[in-house]
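We emphasize that the prediction below concerns an isolated chain of 126 residues; any contacts that depend on oligomerization or on bound cofactors are therefore not represented. The input was used exactly as deposited, without trimming of termini.
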Amino acid sequence: MAHVADAHGEHTAAIGVPIAHEVGQQHPIRLYLVVWIWLFILSTFSYLVDFFHLQGMLRWSLILLFMMLKAGLIVAIFMHMKWERLALGYAILVPPVAVLIFVAIMVLEADHTLLSRLQFFSRDPG
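Result of the prediction step, given as a token string:
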């Protein structure tokens, strides 16, 4: 019986009771340190955007870029999504991407809506 259990990767004690093993994945500490350094660098760049008083679309584009990069690092490494199955990754990543696409469509449509409202409401009643 011990031979059958060993063939399936299970180890048993002398009395035939399975021995509990911790199954897990250990990542090198270097990986976490590198991610912490990148998060620090990206946070510094995000701070510098305000320090240099950047304004307008450049400011918001840089802030959103740094925010997305930091969030991507956190999700990939600290939430272990880098090592998850593809289906789980799609289940977590596709909805935010879809929301961003819909927001982009609304932004593009907003100018048309604003211009048509200005044109309609600026007409003289007579």
